[in-house]
Design goal:
Elements (H helix, E strand, L loop, with lengths): L4 E4 L9 H8 L5 H9 L4 E2 L2 E2 L11 E4 L1 H4 L8 H13 E4 L3 E6 L15 H4 L12 E2 L8 E7 L2 H12 L4 E9 L6 E11 L2 E5 L7 E13 L3 E8 L6 H8 L29 E9 L5 E5 L4 H10 L13
Parallel strand pairs: 8-14
Antiparallel strand pairs: 1-4, 2-3, 2-4, 5-6, 6-8, 7-8, 9-13, 9-14, 10-11, 10-12, 12-13, 14-15
Protein backbone atom coordinates (compact mmCIF):
# COMPACT_ATOMS: atom_id res chain seq x y z
CA UNK A 1 0.00 0.00 0.00
CA UNK A 2 1.18 3.53 -0.79
CA UNK A 3 1.98 5.98 1.98
CA UNK A 4 0.10 9.15 2.73
CA UNK A 5 0.67 11.73 -0.03
CA UNK A 6 0.73 15.50 -0.14
CA UNK A 7 -0.05 17.22 -3.44
CA UNK A 8 0.65 20.89 -4.13
CA UNK A 9 -1.99 22.94 -5.99
CA UNK A 10 -0.74 24.21 -9.35
CA UNK A 11 -1.04 27.80 -10.62
CA UNK A 12 -3.69 26.97 -13.22
CA UNK A 13 -5.87 25.26 -10.59
CA UNK A 14 -6.55 28.48 -8.72
CA UNK A 15 -10.12 28.85 -7.51
CA UNK A 16 -11.50 25.45 -8.47
CA UNK A 17 -13.55 23.40 -6.00
CA UNK A 18 -11.85 20.66 -4.02
CA UNK A 19 -14.24 17.97 -5.33
CA UNK A 20 -13.42 18.98 -8.92
CA UNK A 21 -9.69 18.82 -8.13
CA UNK A 22 -10.18 15.23 -6.91
CA UNK A 23 -12.28 14.35 -9.96
CA UNK A 24 -9.46 15.62 -12.15
CA UNK A 25 -6.61 13.84 -10.37
CA UNK A 26 -8.39 10.75 -9.05
CA UNK A 27 -11.40 10.10 -11.35
CA UNK A 28 -12.15 6.66 -9.90
CA UNK A 29 -12.97 8.12 -6.47
CA UNK A 30 -16.74 8.63 -6.14
CA UNK A 31 -18.34 11.73 -4.65
CA UNK A 32 -19.63 9.66 -1.72
CA UNK A 33 -16.16 8.28 -0.95
CA UNK A 34 -14.69 11.76 -1.02
CA UNK A 35 -17.41 13.09 1.28
CA UNK A 36 -16.70 10.36 3.82
CA UNK A 37 -12.96 11.12 3.80
CA UNK A 38 -13.69 14.83 4.26
CA UNK A 39 -16.04 14.17 7.20
CA UNK A 40 -13.45 12.00 8.94
CA UNK A 41 -10.63 14.47 8.29
CA UNK A 42 -8.61 12.12 6.09
CA UNK A 43 -8.44 14.78 3.39
CA UNK A 44 -7.13 18.17 4.44
CA UNK A 45 -6.20 21.41 2.69
CA UNK A 46 -3.31 23.37 4.18
CA UNK A 47 -3.45 21.13 7.24
CA UNK A 48 -7.09 22.01 7.94
CA UNK A 49 -10.37 20.21 7.46
CA UNK A 50 -12.20 21.13 4.27
CA UNK A 51 -15.46 20.64 2.41
CA UNK A 52 -16.08 19.49 -1.14
CA UNK A 53 -16.98 23.09 -2.09
CA UNK A 54 -13.74 24.55 -0.68
CA UNK A 55 -11.95 26.69 -3.28
CA UNK A 56 -8.26 25.86 -3.50
CA UNK A 57 -5.37 28.21 -4.22
CA UNK A 58 -1.90 27.77 -5.79
CA UNK A 59 0.74 26.51 -3.37
CA UNK A 60 -1.71 24.95 -0.93
CA UNK A 61 -0.98 21.36 0.04
CA UNK A 62 -3.72 18.75 -0.16
CA UNK A 63 -3.45 15.67 2.06
CA UNK A 64 -4.26 12.56 0.00
CA UNK A 65 -4.89 9.35 2.01
CA UNK A 66 -3.31 6.05 0.87
CA UNK A 67 -6.58 4.51 -0.37
CA UNK A 68 -6.97 7.38 -2.84
CA UNK A 69 -3.42 7.15 -4.12
CA UNK A 70 -3.89 3.38 -4.59
CA UNK A 71 -7.24 3.73 -6.41
CA UNK A 72 -7.13 2.07 -9.84
CA UNK A 73 -7.23 4.26 -12.92
CA UNK A 74 -8.82 3.19 -16.17
CA UNK A 75 -6.43 2.46 -18.97
CA UNK A 76 -7.10 3.62 -22.52
CA UNK A 77 -9.86 1.70 -24.27
CA UNK A 78 -10.43 1.17 -27.96
CA UNK A 79 -13.24 3.71 -27.75
CA UNK A 80 -11.09 6.40 -26.10
CA UNK A 81 -8.33 5.77 -28.62
CA UNK A 82 -10.86 6.22 -31.43
CA UNK A 83 -12.17 9.41 -29.82
CA UNK A 84 -8.64 10.80 -29.56
CA UNK A 85 -8.05 10.00 -33.23
CA UNK A 86 -11.35 11.63 -34.23
CA UNK A 87 -10.60 14.77 -32.22
CA UNK A 88 -7.16 15.08 -33.81
CA UNK A 89 -8.79 15.09 -37.25
CA UNK A 90 -10.81 18.16 -36.22
CA UNK A 91 -7.92 20.23 -34.82
CA UNK A 92 -7.00 23.34 -36.81
CA UNK A 93 -4.77 24.84 -34.09
CA UNK A 94 -3.41 23.76 -30.73
CA UNK A 95 -0.92 24.78 -28.07
CA UNK A 96 -0.51 24.13 -24.33
CA UNK A 97 -3.54 26.29 -23.50
CA UNK A 98 -6.10 25.85 -26.26
CA UNK A 99 -7.52 23.54 -28.88
CA UNK A 100 -9.33 24.99 -31.89
CA UNK A 101 -11.59 22.48 -33.63
CA UNK A 102 -13.52 22.53 -36.90
CA UNK A 103 -16.74 20.93 -35.65
CA UNK A 104 -18.69 19.04 -38.30
CA UNK A 105 -22.41 19.68 -38.73
CA UNK A 106 -24.56 17.08 -36.98
CA UNK A 107 -22.16 16.46 -34.08
CA UNK A 108 -23.42 17.85 -30.77
CA UNK A 109 -21.10 19.92 -28.60
CA UNK A 110 -22.58 18.54 -25.38
CA UNK A 111 -24.56 15.46 -24.48
CA UNK A 112 -28.26 15.37 -23.69
CA UNK A 113 -31.40 13.31 -24.15
CA UNK A 114 -30.98 11.04 -27.14
CA UNK A 115 -27.43 12.23 -27.83
CA UNK A 116 -24.83 9.46 -27.78
CA UNK A 117 -21.85 11.26 -29.30
CA UNK A 118 -20.63 14.75 -28.44
CA UNK A 119 -17.47 16.82 -28.55
CA UNK A 120 -17.55 17.10 -24.75
CA UNK A 121 -17.55 13.32 -24.29
CA UNK A 122 -14.88 12.81 -26.94
CA UNK A 123 -12.64 15.30 -25.12
CA UNK A 124 -12.36 12.82 -22.23
CA UNK A 125 -9.77 11.07 -24.40
CA UNK A 126 -7.64 14.23 -24.15
CA UNK A 127 -7.69 14.35 -20.33
CA UNK A 128 -4.37 14.59 -18.50
CA UNK A 129 -3.45 13.88 -14.87
CA UNK A 130 -2.45 17.49 -14.36
CA UNK A 131 -5.28 19.36 -16.08
CA UNK A 132 -8.11 16.88 -16.47
CA UNK A 133 -10.43 17.02 -19.47
CA UNK A 134 -10.25 20.05 -21.82
CA UNK A 135 -13.07 22.48 -21.09
CA UNK A 136 -15.70 23.96 -23.39
CA UNK A 137 -15.84 27.76 -23.25
CA UNK A 138 -18.59 28.40 -25.81
CA UNK A 139 -21.10 26.43 -27.89
CA UNK A 140 -22.29 25.81 -31.42
CA UNK A 141 -25.70 24.39 -32.35
CA UNK A 142 -25.60 20.72 -33.29
CA UNK A 143 -26.37 21.48 -36.95
CA UNK A 144 -23.86 24.34 -37.19
CA UNK A 145 -20.31 23.58 -38.31
CA UNK A 146 -17.08 25.47 -37.80
CA UNK A 147 -14.71 26.99 -35.26
CA UNK A 148 -15.07 25.65 -31.72
CA UNK A 149 -12.61 26.78 -29.05
CA UNK A 150 -11.66 24.52 -26.14
CA UNK A 151 -9.49 25.35 -23.12
CA UNK A 152 -6.85 22.83 -22.08
CA UNK A 153 -6.53 24.01 -18.47
CA UNK A 154 -8.45 25.92 -15.81
CA UNK A 155 -6.48 29.14 -16.21
CA UNK A 156 -7.21 29.30 -19.93
CA UNK A 157 -10.87 28.40 -19.39
CA UNK A 158 -11.27 31.31 -16.97
CA UNK A 159 -9.58 33.84 -19.27
CA UNK A 160 -11.42 32.69 -22.40
CA UNK A 161 -14.79 32.60 -20.64
CA UNK A 162 -14.21 36.21 -19.57
CA UNK A 163 -13.49 37.18 -23.18
CA UNK A 164 -16.80 35.70 -24.32
CA UNK A 165 -18.69 37.20 -21.40
CA UNK A 166 -17.32 40.69 -22.08
CA UNK A 167 -17.79 40.27 -25.87
CA UNK A 168 -14.08 40.76 -26.43
CA UNK A 169 -14.43 38.46 -29.44
CA UNK A 170 -15.38 38.59 -33.09
CA UNK A 171 -17.17 35.63 -34.62
CA UNK A 172 -17.78 35.50 -38.36
CA UNK A 173 -20.29 33.02 -39.74
CA UNK A 174 -21.00 32.03 -43.33
CA UNK A 175 -24.41 31.05 -44.56
CA UNK A 176 -26.45 30.46 -47.67
CA UNK A 177 -29.74 32.32 -47.64
CA UNK A 178 -32.83 31.67 -49.74
CA UNK A 179 -33.57 35.18 -50.88
CA UNK A 180 -31.07 38.05 -50.89
CA UNK A 181 -30.74 40.24 -47.78
CA UNK A 182 -31.37 43.94 -48.38
CA UNK A 183 -29.45 46.21 -48.21
CA UNK A 184 -26.16 44.59 -49.25
CA UNK A 185 -24.68 45.39 -45.82
CA UNK A 186 -26.85 45.84 -42.80
CA UNK A 187 -27.45 45.67 -39.07
CA UNK A 188 -30.32 43.71 -37.58
CA UNK A 189 -31.36 44.57 -34.04
CA UNK A 190 -34.38 42.96 -32.41
CA UNK A 191 -35.51 41.44 -29.16
CA UNK A 192 -35.82 37.66 -29.01
CA UNK A 193 -37.74 35.34 -26.71
CA UNK A 194 -37.92 31.54 -26.53
CA UNK A 195 -41.32 30.03 -27.26
CA UNK A 196 -41.41 26.26 -27.39
CA UNK A 197 -38.53 24.96 -29.52
CA UNK A 198 -38.13 28.23 -31.37
CA UNK A 199 -36.85 31.72 -30.73
CA UNK A 200 -39.11 34.52 -31.91
CA UNK A 201 -38.79 38.24 -32.51
CA UNK A 202 -40.73 40.05 -29.79
CA UNK A 203 -41.29 43.40 -28.16
CA UNK A 204 -38.76 45.03 -25.86
CA UNK A 205 -41.07 44.74 -22.85
CA UNK A 206 -42.12 41.12 -23.44
CA UNK A 207 -41.27 38.76 -20.59
CA UNK A 208 -37.92 37.07 -21.21
CA UNK A 209 -37.02 39.41 -24.10
CA UNK A 210 -33.30 39.72 -24.85
CA UNK A 211 -31.62 42.19 -27.17
CA UNK A 212 -29.95 40.63 -30.23
CA UNK A 213 -27.70 42.35 -32.76
CA UNK A 214 -26.34 40.91 -36.02
CA UNK A 215 -24.25 42.66 -38.67
CA UNK A 216 -24.25 41.05 -42.10
CA UNK A 217 -22.65 41.46 -45.52
CA UNK A 218 -23.69 39.92 -48.83
CA UNK A 219 -20.59 38.29 -50.31
CA UNK A 220 -22.09 36.90 -53.54
CA UNK A 221 -25.54 36.32 -54.94
CA UNK A 222 -27.26 33.96 -57.34
CA UNK A 223 -29.72 36.28 -59.13
CA UNK A 224 -32.46 37.09 -56.62
CA UNK A 225 -32.88 33.56 -55.35
CA UNK A 226 -29.95 33.00 -52.98
CA UNK A 227 -26.93 34.65 -51.44
CA UNK A 228 -23.65 33.80 -49.77
CA UNK A 229 -23.80 35.92 -46.61
CA UNK A 230 -21.20 36.64 -43.92
CA UNK A 231 -22.64 37.39 -40.47
CA UNK A 232 -21.16 38.87 -37.32
CA UNK A 233 -23.30 38.18 -34.22
CA UNK A 234 -22.50 41.07 -31.86
CA UNK A 235 -24.60 39.33 -29.22
CA UNK A 236 -24.84 35.58 -28.76
CA UNK A 237 -28.49 34.61 -28.38
CA UNK A 238 -29.82 31.12 -29.10
CA UNK A 239 -30.51 30.65 -32.85
CA UNK A 240 -29.84 34.37 -33.31
CA UNK A 241 -28.50 34.23 -36.87
CA UNK A 242 -31.16 31.80 -38.01
CA UNK A 243 -33.98 33.96 -36.62
CA UNK A 244 -32.50 37.22 -37.90
CA UNK A 245 -32.02 35.96 -41.45
CA UNK A 246 -35.59 34.65 -41.52
CA UNK A 247 -36.77 37.98 -40.05
CA UNK A 248 -35.44 39.86 -43.11
CA UNK A 249 -36.98 37.32 -45.51
CA UNK A 250 -33.71 35.54 -46.27
CA UNK A 251 -33.81 32.33 -44.17
CA UNK A 252 -30.85 30.02 -44.13
CA UNK A 253 -30.85 27.09 -46.54
CA UNK A 254 -31.63 23.75 -44.90
CA UNK A 255 -32.99 25.27 -41.69
CA UNK A 256 -35.69 22.90 -40.37
CA UNK A 257 -37.05 25.44 -37.85
CA UNK A 258 -36.93 28.80 -39.57
CA UNK A 259 -36.43 27.93 -43.23
CA UNK A 260 -38.61 27.50 -46.32
CA UNK A 261 -38.75 24.81 -49.02
CA UNK A 262 -36.02 24.92 -51.66
CA UNK A 263 -37.23 27.11 -54.57
CA UNK A 264 -37.88 25.55 -57.93
CA UNK A 265 -34.85 25.62 -60.18
CA UNK A 266 -32.46 24.63 -57.41
CA UNK A 267 -31.72 20.90 -57.71
CA UNK A 268 -31.80 19.80 -54.07
CA UNK A 269 -30.13 16.51 -54.97
CA UNK A 270 -27.08 18.42 -56.28
CA UNK A 271 -26.75 20.75 -53.32
CA UNK A 272 -25.30 19.95 -49.91
CA UNK A 273 -27.61 18.67 -47.19
CA UNK A 274 -28.38 20.12 -43.79
CA UNK A 275 -28.33 23.60 -42.29
CA UNK A 276 -25.98 25.89 -44.23
CA UNK A 277 -24.49 27.82 -41.31
CA UNK A 278 -20.75 27.70 -40.64
CA UNK A 279 -18.68 29.38 -37.92
CA UNK A 280 -15.98 30.57 -40.30
CA UNK A 281 -13.66 32.64 -38.13
CA UNK A 282 -13.05 33.43 -34.46
CA UNK A 283 -10.82 36.24 -33.17
CA UNK A 284 -10.14 36.86 -29.47
CA UNK A 285 -7.25 37.41 -27.02
CA UNK A 286 -5.10 34.37 -26.28
CA UNK A 287 -5.25 33.55 -22.54
CA UNK A 288 -1.52 34.23 -22.13
CA UNK A 289 -0.16 36.06 -25.17
CA UNK A 290 -1.22 37.68 -28.40
CA UNK A 291 -4.39 36.86 -30.29
CA UNK A 292 -6.18 33.71 -31.44
CA UNK A 293 -7.33 34.14 -35.04
CA UNK A 294 -8.71 30.84 -36.31
CA UNK A 295 -10.42 30.09 -39.63
CA UNK A 296 -12.29 26.86 -40.38
CA UNK A 297 -12.67 25.51 -43.93
CA UNK A 298 -16.18 24.64 -45.10
CA UNK A 299 -17.42 21.11 -44.48
CA UNK A 300 -18.18 18.70 -47.30
CA UNK A 301 -21.90 19.53 -47.64
CA UNK A 302 -21.45 23.30 -47.81
CA UNK A 303 -18.46 22.88 -50.15
CA UNK A 304 -20.75 20.99 -52.50
CA UNK A 305 -23.24 23.85 -52.48
CA UNK A 306 -20.56 26.53 -52.87
CA UNK A 307 -19.19 24.66 -55.88
CA UNK A 308 -22.62 24.38 -57.49
CA UNK A 309 -23.22 28.13 -57.16
CA UNK A 310 -19.62 29.00 -58.04
CA UNK A 311 -19.10 30.90 -54.78
CA UNK A 312 -15.58 31.72 -53.57
CA UNK A 313 -14.75 29.42 -50.65
CA UNK A 314 -11.75 31.61 -49.75
CA UNK A 315 -13.53 34.97 -49.60
CA UNK A 316 -13.05 37.32 -46.65
CA UNK A 317 -15.67 39.52 -45.06
CA UNK A 318 -14.88 43.12 -44.11
CA UNK A 319 -16.74 44.38 -41.06
CA UNK A 320 -14.35 47.29 -40.46
CA UNK A 321 -17.12 49.82 -41.14
CA UNK A 322 -19.70 47.98 -39.06
Amino acid sequence: MSKLQTRKVEEDEAGIRLDRWFKRHFPSISHGELQKMLRTGQVRVGGKRAESSTRIEPGQEIRVPPQVADAPTEGPTKKSARDASDIKKLIIYEDDDVLVLNKPAGLAVQGGTGIRESIDRMLESYATDKHGKPKLVHRLDRDTSGVLLVARNTYSATRLTESFRHRDTQKVYWGLTLGVPKPEKGRIETFLVKRGEKMEVCGKKDEGAKNAITIYQNMERALFEAAFVAMWPVTGRTHQLRVHMAHIDAPLFGDPLYGIPTPEGMPSDELGKGLHLHARRLILPHPRRGVIDATAPLGAEMKKTWKWFGFDANAEADFSEA
